[in-house]
Write a structure and sequence with these properties.
There is one protein chain. Strand 3, helix 2 and strand 4 form a beta-alpha-beta unit. It is built from three helices and six strands. By secondary structure, the chain is α/β, with parallel strands linked by helices. The protein binds ligand LPXRUNBV and zinc ion.
Length: 147
């Protein structure tokens, strides 16, 4: 039997897809919807007895490592176009939020980063087994790992 719990989050980001053959090469933003699914053995004792992970604890870790980092920032690719890097410099020089990303900030790459980062920061046998990231109400990327 595999038990999972899922919690939803939202955050807002500006990004651009350098060299995209379409509108997404322009600076634009999304309200991302993030679904995070955790799996573990049921906790046997204490205040979280009978839970895979307390929704409150899951919320804290996702907020600290992902949402608070990305929210209201310009997420830019460190190897993107000169325009992308120059926009990031200007945004930073004006004291506004940027996040430097090693990969092109597609929904797929963001989902991979999110599941890896969360799993590096979790203890007690809890694993994030699925991340689904909506860029728009009709478009999402999903990454799953086997436990
Ligand atoms: N596989 C991917 N395709 C695209 C990505 C992505 O991350 N992965 N990103 C974009 C753009 O950043 C942007 O999200 C546009 O997405 P799209 O769904 O095409 O947006 P629309 O506003 O046209 O959505 P509708 O709901 O269809 O109006 C592009 N592609
Ligand atoms: Zn986009």
């Amino acid at each position: 039997m595999k038990l999972t719990v899922t919690k939803e989050f939202t955050f807002d980001c500006a990004h651009m897809l350098s060299n995209h053959d379409g509108l997404c090469s322009n600076l634009h933003g999304h309200t991302y919807k993030l679904e995070v699914t955790a799996s573990a053995q049921l906790i046997k004792e204490g205040s979280s007895k009978g839970m895979v992970v307390d929704f409150g604890d899951l919320k804290s870790i996702v907020k600290e490592t992902i949402v608070d980092k990305f929210d209201h920032s310009f997420l830019f690719w460190e190897e993107g176009s000169e325009a992308e890097k120059e926009i990031a410099r200007v945004v930073e020089n004006f004291g506004m939020r940027i996040v430097k990303f090693k990969e092109r900030p597609t929904a797929e790459n963001m989902a991979i980063y999110i599941i890896n980062t969360l799993n590096e920061n979790l203890e007690n046998g809890i694993k994030i087994v699925r991340v689904r990231l909506y860029e728009t109400p009709t478009s999402y990327a999903e990454v799953e790992i086997d436990v």
